């Protein structure tokens, strides 16, 4: 039965701690194919949390690297024809090698070229999809799962995560992917079970690429994950908690990034376990 927002449990700190501990032991190598805006911030985010990023994009190299890597991110933020060809080669190689891959459907629903590209990718078994409310609604709409359009404002969402929750659950059930819809509260679902991640700070929408970097972190947590729902939820939680902590010593967007990376670096499983009741 579909859960409603009233009955959705908050992700326990014990799960966040266990998943973070697993990531710190694994130190996964993440193959990142993302947009031109967020490359450096995404790489720094992965390094701060304890993963290894590599931005390999040439069509001649992506199949080899998707096979070597522990996880792959496909982000369509600045997609164009040549990049899309390389992405499809990378996805095929990842699937052949058993490398989990994540789709970030940036601005899907706003532009028909990327909407069709992302819709086609859904048939290629992404392990997870991470998007804002508008993007998740648009993807569900592209699969005829809902009548509501995403109404995204470019790459920004006009829809709350809560308004996209049912679409997220339907999208997960239809694709087999874990779906994370982010916003004031993040919801992470496999279609049957859903976790709520209530932490974070609205300033994260005023700094470019926090969602894109989160999708890379989702890929990192998915590497060799025994429980994909918990892995994706923990990725969302660690980013949101770090965002909240960063705001304690930040005056706004310009001073947010440095304490955010520091918070990702120092967040520790033992400390998270101490929050468990
Ligand atoms: N109103 C809010 N309050 C608290 N945290 C938020 C809020 N909105 C977004 N976040 C957090 O910001 C991060 C990015 O989520 P968001 O939904 O803004 O992604 P996005 O729109 O894809 O971002 P981008 O495209 O700029 O990378 C997540 O960790 C999310 O929990
Ligand atoms: C601003 C922007 N434009 C294309 S991708 C991107 C990064 C945020 O999604
Ligand atoms: Mg985004």
UniProtKB/TrEMBL annotation:
It catalyses: 5-(2-hydroxyethyl)-4-methylthiazole + ATP = 4-methyl-5-(2-phosphooxyethyl)-thiazole + ADP + H(+). Keywords: ATP-binding, Kinase, Magnesium, Metal-binding, Nucleotide-binding, Thiamine biosynthesis, Transferase. The keyword ATP-binding applies. One of its GO terms (molecular function) is hydroxyethylthiazole kinase activity. Substrate binds at residues 55, 209. It comes from the Bacteria. Pathway: Cofactor biosynthesis; thiamine diphosphate biosynthesis; 4-methyl-5-(2-phosphoethyl)-thiazole from 5-(2-hydroxyethyl)-4-methylthiazole: step 1/1. ATP binds at residues 130, 182. Pfam families: HK. Its cofactor is Mg(2+). Gene3D superfamilies: 3.40.1190.20. Its EC number is 2.7.1.50. The keyword Isomerase does not apply. Belongs to the Thz kinase family. NCBIfam families: PRK09355.1, thiM. Catalyzes the phosphorylation of the hydroxyl group of 4-methyl-5-beta-hydroxyethylthiazole (THZ). This is Hydroxyethylthiazole kinase. The lineage of its organism: Bacteria, Pseudomonadati, Pseudomonadota, Betaproteobacteria, Neisseriales.
